[in-house]
Write a structure and sequence with these properties.
With 591 residues, the chain is an alpha/beta fold. It is built from 17 helices and 27 strands.
Length: 591
């Protein structure tokens, strides 16, 4: 009997012993599940080797900050959601998630948080909308036992005022811009000041090297890099793009050249190398701030194989826009802009013998951009090839006050013009963007554009910051639509293309003053509220109509859903006599 009681007592006491504390990586792999539709590998989570140290740093109470410089295809968002689940289940606290836009917030909750929590038994019911205090739960605000979750958009920083958080999670920091109240990242960090045991997790794909939030934060950390052993010599090294080689025009032969022994390592060794990899801190004296830098060359996903990435690079290398995307999203490097100021004489020297009445055969679409001045309308006409080359076909000036109907009638005639194409058919203007942001002539622009919207004649207004090239305004104006043009992004793209001397070509009919105006702005680094900001500034005494018109013509192209094969077939199959081109004489020289 005594033996039985002793055994019962032993078992009872054993039941009171808490389970061994798991590291965050162990807890994730033990409890987390990924559903179909969220991951290409649904089921129990198995972290990639490089993810484990990142997870353990997030779960380490001795580390206050974790910064991750990341590409795509390395699973950071799912890792962030798993860390969120651990806080909800094991370490309840006020948690604040900061994302760039409201749309990002909704998508993260609906596409990541809710499906992953539903698939994971350990946290399945903890964030349900009716789990705790149903009346105070919303899509982006949830309460759970011992804590709360708020998901806030950086574009609405006023929402940060009402929230205090012990845990701050920031994703895609480089897509966030400072507003009138300052940096939303700094505002978010201030909401954690009342907690001695706060945790700040910041991750992002870098964008511009000079202004990157994540690269600046990484520079303040212990700067860890992921190094893998060479199968030939055993030396550890970080796999960089300069180490990847392939035979000419054969990206499928891509392999890793060891910088130590110079051996060429085939991709079949990649998984073993990554599995034996380790993180090394470049600044080990920094304490309390763990920084991790990754690129997609170590990703185990099939679409991140060295061969596929080499093929992507070959397609991207000749276009600065696509090359920047590759640099940011695959290599996780900030983009270095090549030039701050353009030389108009060098640009003019690139002129070629073509124009509106000598359209090259590879031009398959034409768009225009119109700038409105007090005594004239200026229009730049741009041709587009199937390879997205930009050909400046001509620049026209329509003299007359915008208050005079005759001025707009001339622009209407221009918008209906047809230009003969070498294939036999004729091209017309596919879209025209007219600036309405002047203020004095806004109503006249609306009156002209709104009835002609079916011909893609659009009233536009330039907006600064990180904006899409062309986006319809949510509100209607004068019973019509206004389109917003992200001028900074387009100017950056054009400047990068012009600096590299490719993909933008010029008609020899353009006047020298046009090139002066195209090069009328330069990009400079300024500091706003203590943060570096790259922005365009006008050179003193310069006019910018040519630049503005080219920006608007680029934006207009975004409104044209063009099938190049169909367009080329229509031009080649044209049998009727082509319409005589409408000739509008430019008075550029008589200004």
């Amino acid at each position: 009997m005594d033996s039985l009681l002793s055994d019962i007592r032993r078992r009872a006491l054993a039941a009171l012993i808490p389970p061994p504390r798991l590291s965050l990586s162990e807890w994730i792999e033990t409890h987390m599940r990924l559903p179909e539709g969220v991951s290409s590998m649904p089921g129990q989570v198995r972290l990639w080797p490089y993810q484990r140290s990142i997870a353990d740093a997030i779960g380490d109470p001795e580390i206050e900050r974790v910064t991750v410089v990341k590409p795509v295809r390395v699973g950071f968002t799912s890792l962030l959601t798993a860390a969120l689940a651990n806080y909800v289940a094991n370490d309840p606290a006020p948690v604040l998630v900061l994302l760039p836009t409201t749309g990002d917030c909704r998508d993260y909750m609906v596409s990541d948080v809710e499906p992953i929590f539903s698939a994971t038994p350990a946290v399945r019911d903890l964030l349900a909308s009716d789990s705790v205090d149903e009346d105070r739960n919303t899509l982006l605000s949830r309460r759970f036992p011992g804590g709360s979750l708020k998901i806030v958009a950086a574009k609405a920083p006023r929402n940060l005022r009402r929230h205090n958080a012990r845990v701050l999670m920031i994703d895609e920091a480089d897509a966030m811009e400072s507003g009138a109240e300052g940096s939303p990242i700094k505002l978010g960090e201030k909401r954690t000041l009342s907690f001695a045991n706060r945790k700040i997790i910041l991750g992002s794909t870098p964008v511009l090297e000079e202004t990157s939030h994540v690269l600046r934060a990484y520079g303040e950390s212990d700067q860890r890099v992921y190094e893998v052993p060479c199968p030939a010599c055993g030396a550890f090294t970080e796999i960089l793009w300069k180490h990847i080689e392939w035979e000419l025009d054969r990206p499928e032969t891509a392999a890793f050249r060891c910088p130590e022994c110079k051996a060429l390592i085939e991709e079949r060794h990649k998984a073993g190398m990554v599995g034996k990899g380790t993180w090394r801190a470049l600044a080990p004296t920094v304490k309390g701030h763990a920084g991790f830098r990754l690129n997609a060359l170590v990703s185990g996903l099939v679409n991140a194989s060295w061969a596929k990435l080499a093929a992507e690079f070959i397609q991207a290398k000749d276009d600065p826009a696509t090359l920047q995307t590759f640099t940011n999203t695959i290599l996780a490097q900030g983009w270095k802009e090549t030039i701050d100021e353009l030389d108009e004489l060098e640009l003019q020297a690139r002129c070629e013998p073509f124009g509106l009445n000598r359209i090259p055969a590879d031009v398959l679409a034409i768009t225009g951009g119109c700038d409105v001045q007090d005594d004239r309308l200026e229009v730049t006409l741009v041709g587009w090839t199937r390879d997205q080359e930009i050909l400046i076909l001509g620049h026209l000036v329509i003299w007359g006050s915008p208050d005079d109907n005759a001025t707009w009638l001339q622009l209407d005639d221009l918008s209906r013009s047809m230009w003969k194409h070498p294939h036999g058919g004729s091209l017309k203007l596919d879209a025209l963007a007219i600036d309405s942001g002047d203020g004095d002539w806004t109503d006249r622009v609306y009156d002209f554009c709104h009835p002609r919207m079916s011909r893609r004649i659009m009233a536009i207004k330039g907006v600064h910051g990180s904006r899409p090239a062309l986006q319809m305004s949510k509100s209607r104006v004068r019973n019509g639509h206004l389109f917003l043009v992200g001028v900074d992004g387009i100017k950056t793209l054009l400047a990068n293309r012009l600096a590299r001397g490719s993909s933008i070509r010029f008609s020899d009919e353009l006047e020298p003053v046009w090139f002066e105006q195209l090069a009328s702005e330069r990009k400079v680094l300024r500091y706003a509220r203590g943060l570096p900001v790259r922005r365009f500034e006008r050179k003193p005494g310069m006019r910018a109509e040519a630049l503005d018109c080219t920006v608007y013509a680029y934006a207009a192209r975004q409104a044209v859903p063009l099938n190049f094969d169909k367009r080329e077939g229509e031009l080649q199959g044209h049998t009727a006599a082509p319409m005589a081109p409408q000739k509008i004489k430019s008075q550029w020289m008589s200004r």
